[in-house]
Write a structure and sequence with these properties.
Layout lengths: L1 E5 L3 H12 L3 E6 L14 E4 L5 H7 L6 E4 L4 H13 L5 E6 L16 E4 H13 L5 E6 L4 E7 L20 E8 L2 E3 L12 E7 H15 L13 H6 L1
Parallel strand pairs: 1-2, 1-4, 2-3, 4-5, 5-6
Antiparallel strand pairs: 7-8, 8-11, 9-10, 9-11
Length: 240
């Protein structure tokens, strides 16, 4: 793909390197001349331009790019660049960085954003995912909030252990897409059995997520330990 990245700071350069390693063509747009360091990403096309200036974007040929990433450290600039990319240049896919989580509600289709990436929210989700067992954790929002990628880690003593994937009755508009087991990524088949400590990744519509949470709650709950033997009859227990 041809990918244009607005903002050649540490974030923009890191994204550019990853995309170049994957064989994509990358253009970096940077407003501040002293931030342009062609040697840091030598295979990228470097353009000294304000990402919010329509004429400069035309001169850079933004209309020829399939994906635009607004990765500056300024949320206002990212919103304006996203809107211009979508409305003026017809870019198919626009990804925008959210620096301040309080601004996240603005990064939607109305501003031309297809995917908003909030680093604080993503880090918080990853922390939750790392420490939460038996709870449904939202990892990422997809398609302007129309669907979410959510995760549940089964406890070691889950009641689902040994049961096939087909036994899991999911609500409409939700799907189990991957099972992570140890170092393996398993594309679930109907007869595949679940195991304790499996990480289950689901895609669910925003409306189905709460229903999915309810369905998975008893599955994710760890089995309560049995009461210790006292050697007493029920009536004696009560009396004691």
């Amino acid at each position: 793909m041809k990918v244009a990245i607005a903002g050649a700071g540490a974030v923009g350069r890191s994204i550019a390197r990853e995309l170049l390693r994957s064989g994509h063509s990358v253009m970096l747009l940077e407003r501040q001349l002293d931030h342009i360091d062609r040697d840091s990403v030598p295979n990228a096309i470097w353009v000294h331009a304000d990402a919010c200036e329509l004429q400069l974007l035309e001169d850079a040929g933004l209309q020829d790019y399939e994906v635009v990433i607004a990765a500056t450290g300024d949320d206002k600039a990212n919103l304006v660049h996203s809107l211009l990319a979508k409305t003026e240049f017809g870019v198919r896919r626009v990804v925008a960085r959210v620096n301040d989580p309080r601004n996240e509600w603005l990064f939607d289709e109305a501003w031309g954003v297809d995917v908003a990436v909030s680093t604080p929210r993503l880090l918080a989700s990853l922390v939750e995912e790392a420490v939460s067992v038996g709870d449904l954790v939202r990892l990422m929002t997809l398609r302007q909030g129309q669907a979410n990628l959510v995760e549940l880690t089964l406890p070691p003593d889950t009641t689902l252990a040994g049961k096939p994937v087909r036994s899991l009755r999911l609500p409409r508009d939700s799907a189990l897409v991957t099972i992570l087991r140890g170092g393996r990524v398993i594309v679930p088949q109907p007869d595949d059995p679940f195991e304790g400590d499996d990480e289950l990744l689901f895609v669910a519509s925003a409306e189905a997520e709460e229903e999915l949470r309810s369905v998975l709650a008893p599955i994710g709950a760890a089995t309560e330990p049995a009461a210790p033997e006292t050697g007493l009859t029920p009536s004696q227990d009560a009396e004691y």
